[in-house]
Amino acid sequence: MAQTADPMTIGARLDALIASGTEYLNNASQAQVCATLFVSSVAFSFALLNCGKGAHGSSLDPTLKPLYKNTMEPIKTKVKSSDGSREPKWYIFKMLNYTAVATFSTSVLHFVLYSDVYMNNDAQMMKLLGAWTLFVLYFFGFFGVSFVDTDDHLVGSPAEDEISEISADQANPSAAAVAKQMPVKAAAPIHPPAPSHPVCSDKNLTKDALTSSSATPAVKKSASSSLDLQSMTNEELAELVLTNKMKDHQLETKLDPTRAVPIRRLVFEKKLASLGHAKSLDELPYEHSLSYERVFGANCEIVVGYVPLPVGMVGPCTLNGESVYIPMATTEGCLVASTNRGCKAITAGGGAVSTLLRDGITRAPCLRFESAAEAAALAIWAQEPHNFTKLKAAFESTTSFGKLLSATPTVAGKNCYLRLKCFSGDAMGMNMVSKGSLAVVDLLRQHFPTLKLVALSGNMCTDKKPAAINWIEGRGKSVVVEATIPKDIVRTVLKTTVKAIVDTNLQKNLVGSAMSGSVGGYNAHAANIVTAVFLATGQDPAQNVESSNCITIMEETDDGDLWISCTMPSIEVGTVGGGTSLPAQAACLKAIGVKGGGDIPGGNARKLAHVVAVATMAGELSLLAALAANTLVQAHMQHNRKPATPAKK
Asked: Catalytic: 464?
């Protein structure tokens, strides 16, 4: 029986492989060695470049795939791909770079120390030259690739900031946890942060540069610079913006302001369509038009015309796991651009989480009696549970959606102010609660014959006036929104540091507001954003008084990142009734995805309140960053001022 040969050990195999390689190097010519090293290097590098995992794993509308070019996946990580193809594993390149530098330096040092050995031994010299050839091939071909990819988003140009590779779950664990529990439409993709960058955030731009026609910072030459843009159709130009070959904010400068608007609308129509809001902007006019038939008997009297307001769109902003675009109507330059920068930072950090604390609109009729004892008797009566049941039945007999939640009395002498709070569905609810309040008063007269209704609104509601009761008890929607912004994004997008912005918020919004005796004004400019969104979406602009109640809190996390929250206890919004029925305002609501009544009563109005809150937080982020970096004045000089136009002779 033949004996089986002993199997070779792994060590023996390696020795044999090394021996054969050494024999080849000793016997091969210099040209053969160099050729072998060259082919091996190219083959290895080609394999490495194609081993990366696909970058775009989320479901996207095919027409929106170009949007992810040179942008960051907000929920995953930031990737840089020119064509949406698979990405290399950049960390391997970085390891190779360090290894190559260390090895090459060691070989040079070894040659210097033992030069006489190498000079007198052709075989050793050939090995060294072969190794150096490999290093040269690597240095010329691939050295520095990962460094460029990393540094580009850390020290990017002002016009093309990149975002650091930070996992959204690590950047904002609370946001990730809540977002997983939130109902999200399966077909709606999460859009990356807006690639456009507001000029007003760059501290290095001088006043001369801002006012000159060539104020665009020197950046990589864009593909649009070699095209005849004026001869292209609007659809072709919109495609350039969608594929990131031309920046959105360059439309006015490269074309003209009049033509830029319809092109930008085409861009946003495609973005909104991917979120299920197709044709949202159809009813938002951009030429002079207004249906006076819709206005008559509903919105205004003695009409002589209308005042057009420009509407800007900010976003995308990731909110509760969904991408939203937010329309803002304003005449204040820099407000939209600044808010957009805040949205970019929020989305890049993993998104915001917004939570509804309370929901109820209020009305407090002033009821007067012949004595303080009678007023007190009503207050005691109204707080009995079985009596509240009677008030609730009377109130809800006047409405299909309204639900009376509470009746809180306050006595002042002979007066009793009964603050009625009701759920109003998707309506803002002032008409609903007023009608129900009259029914409650009629019921109370049956039990208190001397009751006299002084005013249906006794100013304890409190509507359209600053009031501590709204700040403490809330009115409308009470919302708290939060986000965590990684420190690298604070530096690259907001152009400041975490410590600087936290300190600015403390000294300005908290200490400064306290010293002024502010009520609900512990913020930088919440009213700016609230009013702009209100005007765009058909809300009552006067209710920005209480809706702008906001306290902005910022903290530095243990990891050195920025945590921010905005608590807004009295956002008064609706998606049906009032100005929401006008075509332009309805178009803006549709763009957000909240037009009309929701599938769940009150769902659309609540989502709109969340949108108002996250837009406010975005505006707070950007303004406080500008204050911390001392760029506020130059920003407004850019966006609020225009050089005087010479009069035509």
From this structure: yes
